[in-house]
Amino acid sequence: MERDEYRDLAVNDPARLAAIKAEASVSPLYNNDLAPTGPEDRTWSTYNIAALWIGMSIVITTYTLASGLMAAGMNWWQALLTISLGNVIVLIPMLLNAHAGTRYGIPFPVFVRASFGVRGANFAAIARALVACGWFGIQTWIGGLALDALMSAAWSGWAEVAHHQFITFFVFWAVQVAIILRGIEGVKILESLAAPLLLAGGLVLLVWGFVAGGGVGNVFARSAELQAGQVPFWALFPSALAANVGYWITLSLNIPDFTRYAKSQRSQVVGQVIGLPLTMTAFSFIGIAVTAATVVVYGEPIWDPVALVGRITGDIPALLILAMIVVVIAQISTNMAANVVSPSFDFSNLAPKYVSFRTGGIITAVIGIISFPWLLYQSAGAYIFTWLVGYGSLLGAIGAVMIVDYWIVRRRRLSLPDLYKTDGRYAYSGGWNWRAIAAVAIGVVPVLPGFLKAATTPNFAGVFENPTFIESLYNYGLFFTFAVAGLAYLLLSFIPSRAPEVAEEPEAT
User: Fold this and answer.
1) Residue 205 has pLDDT above 60, yes or no
2) How high is the pLDDT of residue 36?
3) φ and ψ of 73, to 5 deg
4) Nearest to 96 by CA among 509, 389, 412
5) E strand or H helix that includes residue 193
6) Is 49 in contact with 268 (CB distance < 8 Å)?
7) Closest by alpha carbon to 114, among 338, 455, 323, 408?
């Protein structure tokens, strides 16, 4: 790579970077997976970043994302608008946190040491990791269902096998573990190859919907039948928007895990702008349009694309097998990038000298099983308005602290060597920055009563009956926690620090 191609790096001298790594290598906070990337590691182009988002966004949970909103009372364009707006909003913290990954070549758990402390970073990292483990389980369960349909098409007696869905779940789990063992480069290759295949599969499904449904106009005329609830749009909108921002709020924290490999800031920014909001909106649109077409064709809405593909191609086993392979690839590509990379680094950060990226991935896969994903996914209300809104509130507060610390308090300047020192600038008090922890608590505690009520309300559909003022704050989820935690951290940062004063990195030239 030519020198002018990596001018966005804070340390763009290979000899100096090697010296920093050599000094940090003796630290208990360092291993090769957490080390800053150099020019030779910057192989992700704009296409690779865009393909990453295409591969992560084209997945069954995106396809069905509108179903919960329409079941609660939204019409098709209101649901699509909410999804689109949510993804444009989440793109903002995504790009803000991505900057440090490209500039300093560091993954999320190392970056968060600057704001939470070298020990406090584990609080933020494990909070992110446990969410990813839950997501890993959900996506693996869905992938197992697709594999189950594939087996049923290949062998008529498969449905008679005891616990056949759990068998395919564990087979799908084992396939992903094999990919985990190949490391981060395997994820890059998988996403780059999967993206065009997944786009083609989505377009084929959309064409079928419009043709079989009697045209675009007829399909959307019948879409009103997808509305099951009667909740007014403006009553549902705040929590629904928060849920859609929460869908990718996890990645807005750990996006440095990927952008540390980007060739430049331009590559990661353009790739994300192209890949995230456009793909999420387009594939959600396909989900709505095709499901509306099933009302015309089959007389009932079929939101589950696995069930739909099985019905469409039931008489042509070869076509069903091909379609299920595409679905399986979609699940694997999303799970590898969104739900394995981050927790692998996060668990490695707990004990860098003992836990590698691959070991962290195995830990993720095991926790994904014991999260009981078949229970998390069975209810649209629990999935959207409790799972997405609930964890989004916590991670939104953590993300706000990171952004305020990096962009306002530190003005994008970090001391790369001190991120790996137990007694450097980011040691704070015993390795913890109490300001960050306090700011997160100030942001999150007010929404806990609403979360507890949502979690204990059967078939919760996003709107409380007669909520108290405190309970109503939950409807705004991460918007509330992000704003309050960010402001609290900014105010707390004015309190003098006793942390060692160490010169930060100068602006790159």
Assistant:
1) yes
2) 96
3) 145, -10
4) 412
5) helix 184-212
6) yes
7) 408
**pLDDT for 18-53, tens place per residue?**
999 999 999 999 999 999 998 889 999 999 999 999
Place of tokens 């970090």: 414
Asked whether 185 and 352 are in contact (CB, 8 A), the reply is: no
Specify the pLDDT at position 496.
74
Q: Take residue 308 and report the two structure tokens written for it.
A: 């739909």
Task: Tell the CATH topology of 45-494.
Answer: Hydantoin permease (1.10.4160)
Residue 502 has pLDDT above 60, yes or no: no
Residue type at position 381: G
Average pLDDT of the chain? 85
Instruction: Tokens 């108290």: give the residue.
Output: 468
Dihedral sign (CA 10, 97, 87, 54): positive
Inter-residue contact 6 to 263 (CB < 8 Å):
yes
pTM: 0.85
Q: What pLDDT shows up at residue 152?
A: 81
Q: What are the extents of the domains in the chain?
A: 45-494
Range scoring the smallest mean pLDDT among 98-102, 391-395, 500-504: 500-504
The three-class DSSP label of residue 153 is helix
Q: Is 201 exposed, middle or buried, given 0-12, 13-18 or 19+ CB atoms closer than 10 A?
A: buried
**Among 384, 266, 292, 279, which Cα is nearest to 330's?**
279
Take residue 143 and report the two structure tokens written for it. Answer: 């992938």
Integer Cα distance of 35 and 44 in angstroms: 17
How far from the centroid of its chain's Cα atoms is residue 479's Cα? Answer: 17
Burial class (CB in 10 A: 0-12, 13-18, 19+), 174: exposed
Cβ neighbors of 318 (< 8 A, separation 6 or more) are none
**Using CA atoms, how far apart are residues 506 and 365, in angstroms rounded to an integer?**
40
The residue-averaged pLDDT of 93-107 equals: 96
Q: Given this model, what pLDDT does residue 507 score?
A: 46
Q: CA angle 479-344-412, nearest 5°?
A: 50
- How far is it, in rounded angstroms, from Cα 198 to Cα 194? 6
Is 463:239 a contact under the CB 8 Å cutoff? Answer: yes
Q: Is the pLDDT score of 509 beyond 60?
A: no
Alpha carbon 328 to its chain's center: 18
DSSP character at residue 408: I
Please determine, for residue 97, whether its predicted confidence score (pLDDT) is greater than 80.
yes
Helix (H, G, I), strand (E, B) or coil at 434: helix
Number of C-beta neighbours around residue 266 at 10 A: 12
Contacts of 306 (CB under 8 A, 6+ apart): 60, 142, 145, 146, 149, 324, 327
Bridge partners (DSSP) of residue 432 are 429
pLDDT band at 459 (very low <50, low <70, confident <90, very high): low
